[in-house]
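Tutorial handout. Part one gives the primary structure; part two gives the three-dimensional structure as tokens.
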Amino acid sequence: MTVSLLQAKDLSLTLNGRRVLQDINFSIKTGEIVTVVGPNGSGKTSFLRCLIGAQAPTSGEISRKAGLSIGYVPQKLHLDRAFPMTVARFLRLAGKSPRAIRLEALQNVGLEGCENQQMADLSGGQLQRALLAQALLGDPDILVMDEATRGLDQPAVAGFYRLIDQARQSIGCAVLMVSHDLHVVMSASDRVICLNGHVCCEGSPTVVSEAPEYRRLFGLGTEGALALYQHDHDHDHDHSEHPHD
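Part two.
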């Protein structure tokens, strides 16, 4: 029986008097790819922050496997161009590792030869690859990504997800990601969680031509929509209730 790497039980979060997350139960196992989807303001980022320990939940429990290593790739990294930082120095922020290992990490994400380049001079796609290289340096048990491909063009998105799949196969890590790249969700995820302050539904991703519940949640039209899953809803969602994404 595969043991969960990370579990949340009855996880709830209130910020500034507003309910952001309520009664969420979650677990992820070794090698599993789980994608979190939901409209803007549904609490996706807050959910990840609670899981990785960056935000304390208001109530509920989070348990992690002893010695759990987490690699994190944020949406973006704000860099001050007046503060010089090379790619090599950025990788060293992840902790001590031999230079050969760092160079291998850069090679694995397609940044070979960029060791001495300034982080501020990288393109958007290169920057995300550098963030991925740093996240993978510690051979994490879980790779957590918060819309890591936002702002990238389609070829860069496709290349980035290929790197993630290669990394997962190479080191056997689980992958937990928030994504709006629905074609990737459908093709790559083992499980999809639809979040809108609480778990609306979850299950294996399925490509479906008609999905009224999903269209309603994302405000899509009735023509040509693709569904992530097939499920039944017996309730509606008030998006304004959960303003934190």
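Part three, for discussion. Strands lie at 4-15, 18-29, 33-37, 59-64, 70-73, 142-146, 174-178, 191-195, 199-203. The CA atoms of residues 32 and 47 lie 18 Å apart.
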